[in-house]
Amino acid sequence: QVQLVESGGGLVQPGGSLRLSCTASGIIFSIYGMDWYRQAPGKQRELVARITSRGTTNYAESVRGRFTISRDNAKNTVYLQMNSLKPEDTAVYYCHTDQWWGQGTQVTVSS
After folding, report:
1. Which residues contact 47 (CB under 8 A, 6 or more apart)?
2. Is 29 left (phi over 0), alpha (psi -120 to 50) or beta?
3. What span, in angstroms and rounded, lies between the C-alpha atoms of 2 and 93?
4. What is the mean pLDDT of the chain?
């Protein structure tokens, strides 16, 4: 059974930082590309960042230069470091690979 479990969300002030984690089980983690998506209220789910099995990264234009995706294959974990957070980054953030999704973690950016 494949599981993706996110953690690290919360409430942060504008300009602050958070680091999200997603730990996978039930898959050979190192061979999978991993994604972070987000969904804000009333909006479609959108791709935020992607990291391939080899470590190549891609970012949505709205987060490039502020967010960093990374992975630790020894821990079966992918991270999303989010800096200079803005209110428009408020959303539920989901970990994804292939056909599997995590349950999501809420990120709220507000003063």
Report:
1. 35, 36, 37, 60
2. alpha
3. 18
4. 97
